[in-house]
């Protein structure tokens, strides 16, 4: 998952920045506007660095308010310029504006995602509607929009250079989508809706976080049957961190839930852990999100109706690769039948093993992972815990560096401790340079471990993106994960899926580091394209050089045996029914929520009835049930865009086949150069569909995805 960078703040609602975590203590100080650290220009090496080690929460509210006031003043100066509007005096000036606020939002992002506290969440709730107001004042500034429109219309007569034309097109489209053409009354209501939504998004996000914090299952020594030793040690530390020494904590996050459901022999505990996780935001208490969803959907629908659209999805997808909800639905519906058919096969295999063992059960959702693991062992003689012995986090990081060196010519070197300020002792930093020239490209921050005060999941972000229109900038890119921190002296061993996710998020970081654009707006992403590059990078985990040199046993240092590698590759399509169906159910529900009259929606029954109509198997649920579907309801980044992961995966599967067909395979030099030139370096400077055609020589084909997942291919394209 990619976080949005600060530069595009005037295009965003407050909710883009909302993410929260568990409470931790925070020292409070006060300061005046003139010496507020969060507003100050970054100093030190590497073109200046955020002072993460000195940031104080007491500075945040004032910094946000001052930063917004400052940016609005800059925007007003642009809008009131008496000279005729040009690209230089309007668009370039907009690109330059907002630097102070960008810096504040960088710190804000750390608190919201990595270092949250109850005190921060109070500020977050108070500031969300104010940030929404600020955003509306820019997108609804009539004088500003008239200047943008004039530049846009002039460019239609006399086209600008390609990158400038792309910037103008993106900015003009975003302003029109944000209501710039509305009359005064409609603009007022549009802005009011945005403010109401910002409050609801904050509430939704914080409710999910509350349920993650409040539901922890504590185990005793006699309840550990089946759990790997590494999990037991990590669970003991998690319990100790929560003042429960001598017990073992299963926290209400995916990184803790997933392995527990896979390995625990205690069926009643599996059910309890499963229900805790999938009931987040749906417990009928003060943290229940059902009403938030109802209000969000109604407000979104009203807002796009002001703009003349039939539904929210129609409005949202117009500037995405899919273009229309129908195109997105067609893609998902092409895969759905094969996915649920495969689930039936998987359940039959699991039920057979349960029956053979005399377990006297019918497979339920909390059994799926557990019996799937038994099927994996029976069918492929593949033990996931055995695989983990060869997947050390540190060695995986070295493998990612190797791949980046081969494809991007990047070199990574650890930065001396203390040279770069960090916000937590777990964070480490590497210097990224060009292997040939030695030129500095950027810094890469890694924050790998789960902890109180950090949101769940994995994501990538930038503290500073590359641009060259005011001089080349050093990129500050970050990867953030939630691996369970091991007991002292123990290695961090992860699952194959988690290793793929690690590579995935590093793909986002490489996309940031490889950027070669002039203007900040061109670093923005197209949501159903931006996951493609990172999904593609996952493929290098299973390449021979990585397996032979970096997937080594944590005790012996011996490389993964050839027979185990063969088993992994043979099982590559195993459990694809589960993986595809749980994902697609969420993506389809996202689209149905936003193409249905919201007056007809009561979330709990709508989710249940819609999935029943789709033929959703009883043995599993949506990956993200509605009440904790943060991608869609804690902001707008992925709303009606969750399908984008599969849209991007169509590109991924097709591009992977290009590498498989190349003379040098995944390390083919010519193809790697095209990968960087057309798919990574341009960011959003080229229309994504055209960029892909430049790389592949044609459009992507869905048949590659079906082959990848082991599904039948029934209608090959010519």
From TrEMBL:
<dbReference type="InterPro" id="IPR001567">
    <property type="entry name" value="Pept_M3A_M3B_dom"/>
</dbReference>
<dbReference type="InterPro" id="IPR045090">
    <property type="entry name" value="Pept_M3A_M3B"/>
</dbReference>
<feature type="domain" description="Oligopeptidase A N-terminal">
    <location>
        <begin position="68"/>
        <end position="186"/>
    </location>
</feature>
<dbReference type="Pfam" id="PF01432">
    <property type="entry name" value="Peptidase_M3"/>
</dbReference>
<dbReference type="GO" id="GO:0006508">
    <property type="term" value="P:proteolysis"/>
</dbReference>
<dbReference type="InterPro" id="IPR024079">
    <property type="entry name" value="MetalloPept_cat_dom_sf"/>
</dbReference>
<dbReference type="Pfam" id="PF19310">
    <property type="entry name" value="TOP_N"/>
</dbReference>
<comment type="similarity">
    <text>Belongs to the peptidase M3 family.</text>
</comment>
<keyword id="KW-0862">Zinc</keyword>
<dbReference type="GO" id="GO:0004222">
    <property type="term" value="F:metalloendopeptidase activity"/>
</dbReference>
<dbReference type="GO" id="GO:0005829">
    <property type="term" value="C:cytosol"/>
</dbReference>
<dbReference type="GO" id="GO:0004180">
    <property type="term" value="F:carboxypeptidase activity"/>
</dbReference>
<keyword id="KW-0482">Metalloprotease</keyword>
<dbReference type="InterPro" id="IPR024077">
    <property type="entry name" value="Neurolysin/TOP_dom2"/>
</dbReference>
<keyword id="KW-0479">Metal-binding</keyword>
<dbReference type="InterPro" id="IPR045666">
    <property type="entry name" value="OpdA_N"/>
</dbReference>
<keyword id="KW-0645">Protease</keyword>
<dbReference type="InterPro" id="IPR034005">
    <property type="entry name" value="M3A_DCP"/>
</dbReference>
<protein>
    <recommendedName>
        <fullName>oligopeptidase A</fullName>
        <ecNumber>3.4.24.70</ecNumber>
    </recommendedName>
</protein>
<feature type="domain" description="Peptidase M3A/M3B catalytic">
    <location>
        <begin position="260"/>
        <end position="708"/>
    </location>
</feature>
<dbReference type="GO" id="GO:0046872">
    <property type="term" value="F:metal ion binding"/>
</dbReference>
<dbReference type="InterPro" id="IPR024080">
    <property type="entry name" value="Neurolysin/TOP_N"/>
</dbReference>
<keyword id="KW-0378">Hydrolase</keyword>
């Amino acid at each position: 998952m990619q976080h949005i960078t600060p530069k595009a703040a005037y295009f965003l609602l407050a909710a883009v920045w909302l993410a929260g975590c568990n409470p931790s203590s925070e020292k409070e100080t006060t300061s005046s506007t003139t010496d507020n650290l969060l507003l100050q220009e970054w100093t030190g090496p590497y073109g200046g660095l955020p002072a993460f080690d000195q940031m104080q929460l007491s500075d945040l509210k004032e910094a946000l308010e001052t930063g917004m006031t400052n940016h609005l003043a800059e925007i007003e100066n642009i809008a009131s310029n008496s000279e005729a509007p040009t690209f230089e005096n309007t668009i370039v000036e907009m690109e330059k504006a907002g630097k102070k606020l960008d810096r504040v939002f960088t710190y804000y992002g750390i608190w919201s995602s990595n270092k949250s506290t109850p005190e921060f969440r109070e500020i977050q709730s108070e500031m969300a509607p104010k940030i929404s107001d600020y955003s509306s004042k820019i997108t609804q500034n009539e004088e500003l929009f008239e200047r943008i429109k004039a530049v846009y219309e002039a460019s239609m007569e006399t086209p600008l250079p390609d990158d400038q034309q792309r910037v103008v097109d993106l900015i003009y489209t975003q302003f029109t989508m944000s209501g710039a053409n509305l009359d005064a009354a409609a603009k007022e209501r549009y802005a009011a809706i945005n403010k109401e939504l910002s409050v609801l998004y904050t509430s939704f996000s914080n409710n999910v976080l509350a349920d993650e914090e409040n539901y922890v299952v504590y185990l005793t020594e006699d309840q550990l049957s089946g759990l790997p030793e590494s999990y037991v040690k990590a669970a003991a530390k998690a319990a100790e961190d929560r003042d429960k020494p001598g017990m073992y904590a299963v926290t209400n996050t995916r990184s803790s839930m997933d392995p527990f459901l896979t390995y625990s022999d205690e069926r009643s505990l599996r059910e309890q852990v499963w229900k805790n996780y999938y009931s987040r935001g749906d417990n009928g208490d003060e943290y229940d999100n059902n009403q938030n969803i109802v209000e969000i959907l109604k407000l979104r629908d009203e807002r796009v109706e002001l703009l003349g659209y039939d539904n929210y999805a129609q409005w949202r997808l117009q500037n995405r690769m899919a273009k229309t909800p129908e195109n997105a639905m067609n893609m998902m519906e092409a895969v759905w039948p094969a996915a649920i058919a495969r689930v039936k096969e998987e359940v039959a295999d699991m039920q057979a093993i349960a029956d053979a063992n005399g377990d006297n059960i019918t497979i339920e959702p909390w059994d799926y992972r557990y019996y799937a693991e038994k099927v994996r062992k029976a069918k492929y003689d593949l033990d996931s815990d055995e695989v983990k012995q060869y997947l050390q986090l540190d060695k995986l990081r070295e493998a990612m560096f190797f791949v980046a060196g081969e494809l991007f010519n990047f070199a990574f070197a650890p930065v001396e401790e203390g040279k770069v300020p960090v916000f937590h002792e777990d964070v480490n930093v590497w210097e990224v340079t060009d292997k040939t020239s030695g030129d500095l490209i950027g810094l890469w921050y890694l924050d790998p471990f789960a902890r109180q005060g950090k949101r769940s999941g994995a994501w990538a972000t930038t503290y500073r993106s590359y641009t060259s229109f005011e001089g080349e900038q050093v990129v500050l890119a970050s990867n953030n994960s939630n691996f369970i921190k091991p007991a002292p002296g123990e290695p961090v061993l992860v699952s194959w899926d988690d290793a793929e996710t690690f590579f995935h998020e590093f793909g986002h970081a490489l996309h940031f580091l490889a950027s070669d654009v002039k203007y900040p707006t061109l670093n923005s992403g197209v949501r159903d394209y931006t996951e493609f590059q990172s999904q593609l990078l996952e493929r290098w985990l299973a390449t021979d050089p990585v397996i032979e040199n970096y997937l080594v046993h944590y005790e012996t240092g011996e490389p993964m045996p050839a027979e185990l590698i063969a088993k992994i590759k043979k099982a590559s399509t195993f459990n694809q029914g589960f993986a595809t169906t749980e994902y697609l159910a969420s993506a389809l529900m996202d689209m149905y929520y936003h193409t249905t009259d919201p007056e007809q929606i009561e979330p709990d029954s709508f989710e249940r009835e819609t999935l029943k109509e789709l033929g959703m198997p009883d043995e599993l649920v949506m990956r993200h049930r509605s009440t904790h579907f943060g991608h869609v309801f804690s902001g707008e980044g992925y709303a009606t865009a969750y399908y984008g992961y599969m849209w991007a995966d169509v590109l991924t599967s097709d591009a992977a086949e290009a590498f498989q067909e190349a003379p040098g395979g995944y390390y083919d030099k010519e193809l790697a150069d095209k990968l960087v030139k057309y798919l990574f370096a341009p960011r959003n400077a080229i229309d994504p569909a055209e960029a892909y055609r430049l790389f592949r020589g044609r459009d992507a084909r869905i048949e590659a995805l079906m082959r990848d997942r082991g599904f039948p291919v029934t209608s090959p394209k010519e």
